[in-house]
Amino acid sequence: MKTKTSITLSSSLLDEIDRQVDSETSRSAFIETVLRDYLREKSRRALQAKDLQLLNAAADRLNREAEEVMEYQSFESNSQ
Prior knowledge:
Elements: H1 11-20, H2 27-78
């Protein structure tokens, strides 16, 4: 379902939109596509940031474990 709305754009932005829109696409369709792409990308970036945070948290724990193993191996090789 489409809802009619009104937005205010600068003349220069509207000119740029008109240059980008082909003869088979309306301004409204173009703006809707651009906004959908933007919102999809914004959601994707938020998900990636959350994933990165989880990976970094796991990396810290795994790095500590690796350091403990290396210290243990170093201790074992020095005591032989």
